[in-house]
Amino acid sequence: MNTKRQYRTYTKEFKEEALGLITEQGYSVPQAAEALGVSSNLLYTWKQRAEELESSNVTADERQELLALRKEVKQLRVEKEILKKASAFFAKEMK
């Protein structure tokens, strides 16, 4: 029996409110996690990412563009590999 694990997804607003409990209301991470019904590790991860974003000199628009460019580069690499394999196949066929 192959059962896939179901992962919950949380909205940006939920994450911001969860971090607000810690930063603005003085909850500890374990207290906030228990109150929200999420794991402490998840809150630590969200907190770390938020701190990294705050310390970053990249604007939101630049971050969005960077993600789009990374996605495009990944797609182009896949296409390049397909073309390499196709050209090798046709070169072999022509011999």
TrEMBL record:
Keyword match Chloroplast: no
Cited SUPFAM superfamilies: Homeodomain-like (SSF46689)
Chain ranges of the HTH psq-type domain: 1-53
PROSITE patterns the record matches: HTH_PSQ
Family membership noted in the UniProt record: Belongs to the transposase 8 family.
Gene3D superfamilies the UniProt entry points to: Homeodomain-like (1.10.10.60)
Coiled-coil zones: 59-86
Keywords tagged on the record: Coiled coil, Developmental protein, Phosphoprotein, Transcription, Transcription regulation
One Pfam family here: HTH_Tnp_1
Tagged with keyword Iron: no
Organism: Shewanella sairae
Record-given protein name: Transposase
